[in-house]
Specification:
phosphoglycolate phosphatase activity, globular, HAD_sf, 2 domains, HAD-like_hydrolase_sf, Rossmann fold, single chain, alpha/beta, 220 residues
Length: 220
Amino acid sequence: MIDWHRIDTVLLDMDGTLLDLHFDNHFWLEFLPARCAEVRGVDMDDFLADILPHMRALEGTMDWYCIDYWSRLLDIDVLALKREVSHLIRFRPHAQAFLKALQSSDKRSLLVTNAHQNTLALKVEHTALDRYLDELISTHDFRRPKEDPLFWDQLREAYPFDPARTLLIDDNLSVLRTARDYGIGQLLGVAQPDSRQAAKIWEEFPAVGAFTDIMPRVGR
């Protein structure tokens, strides 16, 4: 699935790739709406009916990923609420073993996430992701999401890499399409980003089911 001899740099998404997307899906689709509905004294279904169209309209933009934006819009501390369910933050199966194998190889590994810096910090607090990767990068530092073609130029300027000799693993189809257009050499989707949901059907890109299937060769 991966030609490791042609890879120098590995770019890894966080939510749904290294970490189980169940935390995020539960938070945004269940926990946060329930709390907002409770505060407003309305039915959760009514609250969702009001907010979901707005959320969908922002999908793929920086505001979509920005907890500061949602805190202001909903008049609620989103980060504080995330802490209440942070016990759900966990690695996807064998992700740690995969990261350790990368550390023992000659590959440079960078986490590249659309998550807000404070969300990234929360997840590092619960997973120690910073122990496994060479760099942890939030797209909020560049003010452009991974779906924006210009982001990749900015990333390459800040963290030089050869696109043709780079692997990106991401569960977001739009991100993979943008990376393909930019010239990223090898691209993988994720078969089951959320452990509580059925596997996704991928057509445009190969998808990894288990990290044990793509372990890099250990040794320099």
